[in-house]
Amino acid sequence: MKTDTGREYLRTLGIPGQAVKAVGLVGAGRMGMPLVGHLAKKGFSVTVYDIDGTKKAGVEGRGARWADTIKALAEESEVILICVGYDQELRELLSKSGELGKLAPGTIVAILSTVHPRTVVELSRDAAERGVHVVDSTMCRGGKAADEGTLLAFVGGDAAIVERLRPVLAAYSSDIVHTGSVGTAQVAKAANNMVMWACLIANHEALALAQRYGLDPEKLREALLLSSADNYVLRNWGVNTMAWAEDDMEIVQQMAAERGVGLAQAGLNRELLRALKPKRFKLDEYGV
């Protein structure tokens, strides 16, 4: 939005026309911490809050300021990125009585967490009554991509707000896809997770079976990358922690139940992932 008309449209939405300079981040965990350094290197003034105070040194070492309270972070930020774990945490933060319940009008809140689409839609509607803009901006490709600044960001929200947010997302994302209205980024992330976890299971089963027949699984993996069996988790074999696998699939099942969609493979995969997690990448143990 570089034209006068574009700036005027932003003003009608309560969004300043100038570039974002101050970014706040709530949640400096495995995915959030790498973002701190990328944002600071891109010249943003970054303020970070995490409930775990031991992360302060890591945050400051990456060129950001540590906030002792979420209120202090909010006072410094034009855009706030939220990277917490669960729906309930988001609701507590963004409710009218929550720590982010009294943000200045025009503030943009981007939900990076993987949650139910309904949660984001409801929070966005409630925040709009206070002049605050909530979008969902889910992250794909995992911790390795977060470290490298090559995440894929799905973004759901008003086009003008997404454009204002884009330079912030580009600090740590090599690809940004505007999926539509608020909540659609969560739907896109759910679809991504369904395929990703299915591939991880299939990769284990294929390589374990081949190993039992005397094939070198690493040589076969390299060969499969040249075939129709190529997939992202096969290319990045051995790095996935599966930390959120069951939670991801629980959200998928909740979404499917709400719309009356039977997803037999997704339901089965959730159970398989539970059994796989302690044996991941241990082909000698898989299937035993």
Walk me through what this model shows.
The structure is a single chain. By secondary structure, the protein is of the alpha/beta class. The chain folds into two domains: 178 residues, Rossmann fold (3-Layer(aba) Sandwich); 92 residues, N-(1-d-carboxylethyl)-l-norvaline Dehydrogenase, domain 2. It is 49% helix and 15% strand. The chain is built from 13 helices and eight strands. The chain has an eight-stranded mixed beta sheet, sandwiched between helices. α9 crosses α10. The relative contact order is 0.10.
Features:
eight-stranded mixed sheet, 13 helices, Rossmann fold, disordered N terminus, globular, single chain, 49% helix, N-(1-d-carboxylethyl)-l-norvaline Dehydrogenase, domain 2, alpha/beta, 288 residues, 8 strands
Q: What is this entry, summarized?
A:
The chain has 288 residues and is α/β, with parallel strands linked by helices. The protein has 13 helices and eight strands. An eight-stranded mixed beta sheet has the order 3-2-1-4-5-6-7-8, sandwiched between helices.
